[in-house]
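Thread: sanity check for a docking pose with zinc ion

Original post by kr_44:
Hi all, I'm comparing my docking run against an independent structure prediction. Below are the sequence and the ligand SMILES. Could someone generate the full complex and paste the structure tokens? I mainly care about where the ligand ends up relative to the chain.
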Amino acid sequence: MKKFLTALFLFSCLYSCAQVKNPDYFYVKTKDSLPFLKYGLGKDRLGGAKMTFLDSDVVLKVTDSVRDDYKVQLSQFHSAWIEKAKVAKTLPIEEKQYLTSSWNVYGDSLYDYVVISLDQKLPYKSEMKINPSRIVVDIFGAVSNTNWITQLSTARGIKNAWYEQPEDDVMRVIIELKHSQNWGYRIYYSENNKLTIRIKRQPRILNLSHLTIAVDAGHGGENIGATGVVSKIKEKDYTLLIAKELKKQLIKKKAKVVMTRTKDTTLSMFERIQYLGQQNPDLLISIHLNSSSQDTTSGVSTYYRYIGFRPLSEAILKSMLQLGLHEFGNVGSFNFSLNGPTDYPNCLVEVAFLSNKKDEKKILDPRFRRETAAKIIEGIEEFLKKL
Ligand SMILES: [Zn+2]
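Reply from moderator J.T.:
Ran it for you. Here is the predicted complex with zinc ion included:
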């Protein structure tokens, strides 16, 4: 009997020891530092391709770790990567069906809102769609218990809002907009884990005199950017000269202008995006000067990340080509930080190449810089005219 009891004791100990073995996953919470999910471990000068930005305090399940990144399981069939620096360890959350409740769709004097109550800050990703203009948000780990969606007439920019449940644990929010142009949106959790999609309406008067334009002069301070192939001028100084010229001419058109920097200041991308987020501009133009290891490469290019923001960058490129610059192109899905915000249509303008002698000569000419600013403005006006 004693032998039997000892065996039983040993067995139960082994069993319970196996039970308390550390699980091969743990949980983290996003920090308040513009955290974003990435598709994979890709690394180039722009970093890995971004899937989506996330709010802070979003809980993620970590299943793997490679160098500076964690792999996180979003749902049964979806995973992503996140920088370790963007999260902090947190207590486990209950693994259960996270049910969504009814939704409210409404507007205030500035924005329209789609608000979905959840009982946990679940991860999500968003996509901008065109023709028709839509915002699509996938909420991972969410199961629909949405049995009604109240849509008020105060939501003046939203045509329709509905959901689909494409997978057992992925709920898809679909918001169809009234205007073909997407003017931006922000996703965040408000109090009591309410997932909020705040949508900017199309401005009522599509004239520069009624709009706020943000102008970003690339680089600055310790970050000098590229250097001129012959003159050795610094990119940071000439982006600022063009940005200031742009501001001057925009003010002549009675636009409101916000600048990320007006001096030779060192500013991180995080600081720029945070500042712009507070300013709520209608549009953002970021000015850079390009550089290539091949000195024959030349010309002007404009860049966008989200397809819904492409029309602005196309119009600016078309206008700038009138300066007689070579067409380097209109570049999409561009993983540049200031093309990342979904809050406002944005366009990166790489005016010309500092690594090309002919282009460099142009950049050094104050008249060319004045004309560059004028053509960017003409491009914005053409963009507005088409809406
Ligand atoms: Zn640059």
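Residues 218-219, 225, 235, 288 surround zinc ion (CB under 6 Å). Hope that helps with the comparison, let us know if your pose agrees.
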